[in-house]
Amino acid sequence: MPAKAMKRCAWCGDDPLYVRYHDEEWGVPLRGDRELFEMLTLEGAQAGLSWITILRKRENYRRAFANFEPAVVAAFDERKQAELLLDPGIVRNRAKIAATIGNARAVLTLQAEGQTLTDFLWAFVDHRPIVQPRAEGERLPATSPESDAMSKALLRRGFKFVGSTICYAFMQATGMVNDHMAGCFRLAEARHSQ
Question: Which of 43, 96, 102, 190 is the most exposed place for a label (fewest CB within 10 A)?
Answer without folding.
Answer: 102
